[in-house]
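Lecture 7 notes: from sequence to structure.
We start with the chain below.
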Amino acid sequence: MYRARLRHDEGYSEILFEEFFIIGETQKGFYISINKWNAITKKYNVKKWVPKSGKNPFAFTTKELALNSFVFRKKRHLRILKHQTVVAQKAMEMAKSMLSAQDLSGNRFYHYEHEF
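Predicted structure tokens for the same chain:
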């Protein structure tokens, strides 16, 4: 099974496919092996269950499906970042407005209206 992920170093980025081995199969999904430390069991090679169908599986049977999931995850990531950018810009505008008006007295609450 595959999961696409981004590897980013200074000045260099690439999309990689992590490959997971199927160690078991049920009617509804697969058990895959993940090389990850589990602090509870104190073991590597954690067993993870992945559904055959569903809204958001961790890994996919083909690289194409894994890449489609990667695109979906990055679109969501961008939506979140855009929202956070708008909030940060509004906060900066409010702070600059308060500084220019020298309106630092009291414990006033400033707010803005937005649509998302």
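Points to note: The helical segments are 63-101. The longest strand covers residues 2-9.
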